[in-house]
Amino acid sequence: MNIPMLDLKAQYASIKDEIDGKVLEVLSAQNFILGAEVKALEEEIAAYSGVRFAIGVSSGSDALIISLMALGIGSGDAVVTTPFTFFATAGAIARLGAKTVFCDIDPVTYNIDPRSLEEVLLKLKKGRRIARVKAILPVHLYGQVADMDPIMKLAAKYNLRVVEDAAQAIGSEYPGRKGVRRAGAIGTLGTLSFYPSKNLGGYGDGGMVLTDNARLADKLKMLRVHGGIGKYYYKILGGNFRLDALQAAILRVKYRHLDEWQQKRRERAAYYDQKFAALGMKDARFVQTPVAVYRDSGARNFHTYHQYVIRVKDRDKLQAHLKTNGVGTSVFYPLSLHQQQCFADLGYRRGDFPVSEKAAKEVLALPIHPELTAEQQDYIVDSIKGFLG
Question: Which of 226, 255, 284 delimits the end of a domain?
């Protein structure tokens, strides 16, 4: 059996007529930059996420960069984030000349650990370097929101802004002190990615910034068009961060199916959980915050399963075994960012963030897309069972 990690062709086949019709509509109109489609998508995603404003941009990576730019973060500043994430999270900080400060992750959720965050902030305060820190950048990894209440409490204590990297977590919910809120709607700013593999993915790059702050929303709209306030008039230094109308139109079609797709991901995750539990497989454990905590709070999309992740000691051997058996898998992520060569100048060493380093050696993502069948999942679990014994 051949099971791909992600089957975008199957997804396209299910909505082909809708997509093709919308693409032809945009081609006929010949309006490709920003415009009505982008505006409509912004309004839809803002309402879906529970914020006042959504600003469409060119990618999830650019959403991070433009968010930090809007907050005035640059040379001499510092931003605290997790080392267990995609490169773009820390890369956005570095590209603006600011310093990346890492703290370790929670061993259960893989999201930023509020206790580690507090330790880092206290250490910076004692060293009289806390003034350099301007923001906290938590990542909602694999489709689950980080524990935001203590993060927001620390941000208030130290007068810091919070930029949520919600690239993998559109629609995910967090039950906090202010009720159930969605990813990207809790901090000062939130960022989304529409990369093709995401739960809501375009047919190319795309992203969005979420906020309730009208002043920041206006600034973001200027920044995405080179800082312009009119044709050939520029108020601030920005960049070309625009979302294409064609991508927005495609995303609007796919958005109509998002809730259904999210539910199917949850169903497939529950089926994996059931199969692994029935086999008593202690060496393969899906990692998530305890379900009961979220169910009791009224959060439905407490996890939207952008990835379904197991962790095993012989990860690389298991991945090779599954490949031999026709099962596609992926590792998110094989090397903690503090160990990446491009961040060597930060001065971190192996052992500085042990939870992140251990996770990088053990995590393995299994296929979890909505088109996945029970038969395919049975085959995947049986293949893992055969490897582990």
Answer: 255
Positive or negative torsion for Cα 164, 168, 170, 171: negative
Question: Which domain covers residue 370, as residue numbers?
Answer: 258-388
Does residue 313 belong to any structural domain of this protein?
yes
Give the C-alpha distances (Å, rounded to integers) separating 134 from 72, 75, 116, 347.
Answer: 9, 11, 18, 20
Distance, in Å, from the CA atom of 74 to the CA atom of 249, rounded to the nearest integer, reads 34
Give a yes or no: residue 323 inside a domain. yes
SS3 (DSSP) at 378? helix
Q: Do 218 and 114 lie in a common domain?
A: yes
Mode of pairing for the β-strands spanning 133-137 and 189-193: unpaired
- d(C-alpha 328, C-alpha 253), whole Å: 28
**240 and 289: one domain?**
no
The end-to-end CA distance of the chain, in Å, is: 20
3-state SS assignment for residue 129? coil
Q: Which tokens sit at 56?
A: 């469409």
Cβ pair 183, 168 in contact under 8 A: no
What letter represents residue 356's amino acid?
S
State whether 272 and 384 are in the same domain: yes
Q: Are strands 363-366 and 308-311 parallel, antiparallel or unpaired?
A: antiparallel
The string of DSSP letters for 276-329 reads HHHHT-SSS----S-HHHHHTTT-S-SB--S-EEEE-TTHHHHHHHHHHTTB--
Q: Are 226 and 34 in contact (CB under 8 A)?
A: no
The pLDDT tens digits for 202-258 are 999 999 999 999 999 999 999 999 999 988 999 999 999 999 999 999 999 999 999
**Sign of the dihedral through C-alpha 56, 58, 60, 61:** negative
In this structure, the answer to whether residues 173 and 121 fall within a common structural domain is yes
- pLDDT single digits (tens) 68-115: 999 999 999 999 999 999 999 999 999 999 999 999 999 888 999 999
Overall domain count for the chain: 2
Q: Which of 255, 276, 302 is the last residue of a domain?
A: 255
Q: How far apart are CA 247 and CA 131, in angstroms?
A: 40
